[in-house]
Amino acid sequence: MCSNGDFFYLGLYMKVMKILCLVLLFPGISLYAVVDRVVAGSRLWDNNKRINDELSCDILIYQTDIPYTVTASGNYCLAQDVTIGAGDDGITISANDVELDLNGHRLDGAGSADNGVVLSVGADRITVKNGFVSGSSISGIQLLGNQNVVIDGLIISEGQFTSRGIRLEDCNYVSIKNCDVVKDFSTGIDLLDSNELVVTKCHISNCTNGIQASEVQLVVDNCIMTNCSIGFTMPFTTGTGEDVVLRDCLVADSGIGFRLFNSDVFALRCIVKNSSSGFLTSTFTSNYTYVECQAIGNSQQGFSSPSNNVVYKKCIAHDNGLNGFAVSGLAQNIHFLDCESINNGSDGFSCSNTAVNILFKGCVARDNSGDCFETVASGKYMNNVSIDNGGLPFSPALTDATKAISYSSAGVLAGANYWINVID
Question: What pTM was estimated for this model as a whole?
Fold first, then answer.
């Protein structure tokens, strides 16, 4: 029968034999890295993902290799935490068909390096994944003129106030997923003049702009922006507009939630809460659809738009400091369908008297400090309800008595100020 000591020496013998086999079979792997992990108590074959990843790498990158340029296809791994010199780019990828695995390690620019990882123009079918990039003065990850790129599982931090966490321009078919961009970047993710982009399950915080998109075809899905001056922004341009889908995104504790200053946006189940303003658009832009979006507890407007061709469907604005929904300027073709405006600091629904072709259907305004529907008498109103608002149910008053029926507190619904609108 073997004693505990016998089992100890047998286990140690097996580990030593495994190390020797590993070094003989894979001469490119660092003996120091292997022994270091064993001495630290790692389970070499079962629990140490870094070792397994290194086995799949064609090239290991060490501190002495930085700055490093990838010039051939293959799998590359960062073997240790590295520091990038002042004014340098940490790793430049100049070849096609490259996977760069940071392997849980850090590329540290120490506040003076230019970029963490750069994809040269024309480098296509690239994956960069699984690690940390910090302290770059221009960009953590920079793409220019690339196609079929995946950025996955990166934490990018400690930028400069003029730098970007991830920046891409003139790119196609790029997926950015499972990334965190945090602290002191001018823009967390900056997207310019590109097509077929997907940003999903990313978190951007403590940046001036969370995500900025200009002249792009883009889907943003399940992303969270917190403590930013603007969560998601589309700057005004003179081009033909964007093609942007925002789905299941949250902006919280920020300045402006969604600043959509260009055309052609579809937003589904997006939320802005505890910020300054919720959803804003710009004059001279058009074609916005909001479905099941919410503006909650913001200090100014919930939804505000001077744009044309806007649809709000099943949207909710509550506990905002000013209007729940506001339409300003010369806006045309605005439809509110089954929306609710509750307990806002001013009007429930407010439209300028120059707006044209406004439809309210199945909407509810309740407990707002101002008027229920402060809007144009020429609009269309179908099956809307006002309950206990501080101002008038409708302002200016409807001249067509068939459009509104007023009830006393003893009427259909108990309340001091109840008003229902019948089908026009």
Answer: 0.82
